[in-house]
Design a protein that fits this description.
Blueprint (H helix, E strand, L loop, with lengths): L6 H23 L10 H9 L3 E12 L3 E8 L13 E8 L2 E8 L4 H4 L4 E6 L3 H8 L6 E5 L15 E7 L4 H11 L6 E8 L8 H8 L4 E6 L8 E2 L4 H7 L6 E5 L2 H12 L8 E3 L14 E8 L2 E8 L4 H7 L18 E5 L2 E2 L9 H5 L2 E2 L5 E2 L3 E5 L1
Parallel strand pairs: 7-8, 7-11, 8-9, 9-10, 11-12, 13-19
Antiparallel strand pairs: 1-2, 1-6, 2-5, 3-4, 3-6, 13-14, 15-17, 15-19, 16-18
The structure holds FE2/S2 (inorganic) cluster (FES).
The site of FE2/S2 (inorganic) cluster has 13 residues, from loops.
Length: 383
C-alpha cells in the first residue's frame, strides 16, 4: 500500500518540534498559587455519602403501640445528607459488652435532613430496640450509617400512582414518603392504607391527618374496632378495589411478616408483575429451634484473630456483635452486601430468599454474616 505525503504532515512535525519549548514557556508564565486542597466535587460527594456519622439524641416522645419517636442531630457536620424518602439508617451503640446496631426507616423528610434533623420511629421489639425505647435519653450519642436502601420510589420503574400498605410500626417509611410528596420532592400520587388494631394503636396520627389535608389519600383500617370514618377488618383485595385500580399502581408494603403473608395471597389474584409489588425487607432474626448447638467461630479482622461462640439459631453477625466485634453491617437482610465477608472454613445456612450474594461470591466462598446461620465450627475474615 502506498501512502501519499501531505503538506500537513510536515506542519504537524513542526508543531511537534515546538511542543516542549511551548510547554516550558506556558509553565514559566503560569500562576504559582498552590493547587486547591479541596475540590467541590469531593465536598459534594462527602456531603451526600459520609459513610458513618456521629449523632446525638435530641428528644424523644412515646408513641402508641410500644413505639417511641427519636429525634437526632448530627455532630460531625452541620446537616444530614439528602436521601430518598423510604430509606433507612442503621444506628449503632455499645450496650453492655455488646456492640449492636439495627436499621430503622427514616420518618422525617429529606428536606428536614438539611436542617440537621432526622427522626426515627422505633418499636420495642428486640434487644437494641428495647434499649432505645426504654433507656435512651437526650444527650446520648450514637454512630449512624448514611441513609441507604432500595425501598423508595423510582421514576423509571414505578407507576405515577403508588399505594402504600402499612401495618403497625411499618408506617415509618411512608411518613417520609408522604412528607416528601407534599414538599414537592417526589412526583407520585400516594394512597396510604394503614392497618392498626384500634384507634389507640395508630402511631403518628396527628402528622398523618395533617398530610391528608395536603394531598395524601389516607385510609385507616382498624381490625378490632368499628368507627365512623374508618374501615374495619384487614387490608383485603376487596377493600383495595373500593379505592384504587390494583392494575395501574405500584404497591409498597411495610409491616410484620404476618401482614406480608396475608397480602401476598390477596394480591396474587391480580397476577401483577414482580416490580409492581415492593416490600421493605425485615431484619434477619433468630431461628426457632429446640436446643440449638454452639459452635466455635474464629474471626480474622486485619491482623487480629478472635475465637468466639456462635449459636446455631443466630446469625453470624449476631454472634460477632455479642462478642463486641465491630463488624460492618447496614440492612441486616442480605441485600446491601455491606457485611460481605470471606469464609475460610466451615458450613453455614442461608435461606434462599435472603441470599443476596452474587454468583461469584458463592463460587469463591463469600458470605453475608447478617443472614448466615452457623452449621459447624467456622473461620471467617471480616473487612
Ligand atoms: S448487612 Fe446488608 S447484606 Fe449484610
Amino acid at each position: 500500500m502506498k501512502f501519499k505525503k501531505q503538506i500537513f504532515g510536515f506542519m504537524d512535525m513542526l508543531r511537534f518540534k515546538k511542543l516542549v519549548p511551548n510547554r516550558r514557556k506556558a509553565l514559566a508564565e503560569g500562576a504559582d498559587t498552590p493547587l486547591p486542597t479541596e475540590y467541590r466535587v469531593n465536598q459534594m460527594a462527602d456531603a451526600l455519602h459520609p459513610g458513618r456519622m456521629q449523632v446525638e439524641l435530641v428528644s424523644a416522645r412515646p408513641l402508641p403501640g410500644n413505639m417511641r419517636e427519636l429525634v437526632f442531630k448530627r455532630l460531625d457536620a452541620p446537616a444530614f445528607p439528602f436521601f430518598r424518602a423510604g430509606q433507612y439508617v442503621s444506628l449503632q451503640s455499645a450496650v453492655g459488652n455488646s456492640l449492636v446496631s439495627r436499621p430503622y426507616s427514616i420518618v422525617s423528610s429529606p428536606r428536614e435532613a438539611l436542617e440537621n434533623r432526622l427522626v426515627l420511629g422505633v418499636e420495642d421489639a428486640g434487644f437494641f430496640s428495647g434499649h432505645l425505647v426504654k433507656d435512651a435519653k437526650p444527650g446520648d450519642r450514637f454512630r449512624m450509617t448514611e441513609p441507604s436502601g432500595e425501598f423508595h420510589y423510582e421514576t423509571l420503574r414505578d407507576s405515577g400512582e403508588i399505594v402504600c400498605l402499612a401495618g403497625g410500626s411499618g408506617i415509618t417509611p411512608f411518613l417520609s414518603m408522604a412528607k416528601s410528596m407534599v414538599e414537592g420532592d417526589e412526583p407520585y400520587k400516594m394512597t396510604l392504607f394503614y392497618g392498626a388494631r384500634d384507634l389507640a394503636h395508630i402511631a403518628f396520627k396527628e402528622e398523618l391527618d395533617a398530610l391528608a389535608e395536603k394531598g395524601l389519600r389516607l385510609i385507616y383500617v382498624l381490625s378490632d374496632e368499628q368507627r365512623d370514618g374508618y374501615e374495619h377488618g384487614f387490608i383485603t383485595a376487596g377493600l383495595l378495589e373500593k379505592y384504587i385500580d390494583p392494575h395501574s399502581v405500584t404497591f409498597f408494603l411495610c409491616g410484620p411478616q404476618a401482614m406480608y403473608d396475608f397480602l401476598e395471597k390477596e394480591l396474587a389474584q391480580y397476577q401483577l408483575p414482580r416490580k409492581a409489588v415492593r416490600r421493605d425487607p425485615a431484619c434477619c432474626g433468630n431461628r426457632e429451634m429446640e436446643a440449638p448447638k454452639t459452635f466455635q467461630l474464629t474471626v480474622h479482622v486485619r491482623d487480629k484473630v478472635s475465637v468466639i461462640e456462635a449459636h446455631e439459631n443466630e446469625t453470624v453477625l449476631t454472634a460477632l456483635e455479642r462478642a463486641g466485634i465491630d463488624a460492618p453491617n447496614k440492612c441486616r437482610a442480605g441485600g446491601c452486601g455491606y457485611c460481605h465477608s470471606k469464609l475460610l472454613h466451615g458450613d453455614f445456612f442461608v435461606e434462599p430468599e435472603r441470599d443476596g450474594r452474587r454468583e461469584a461470591d458463592r463460587k469463591f466462598g463469600f458470605l453475608h454474616p447478617c443472614v448466615s446461620y452457623p452449621q459447624s465450627d467456622m473461620e471467617i475474615e471480616i473487612p
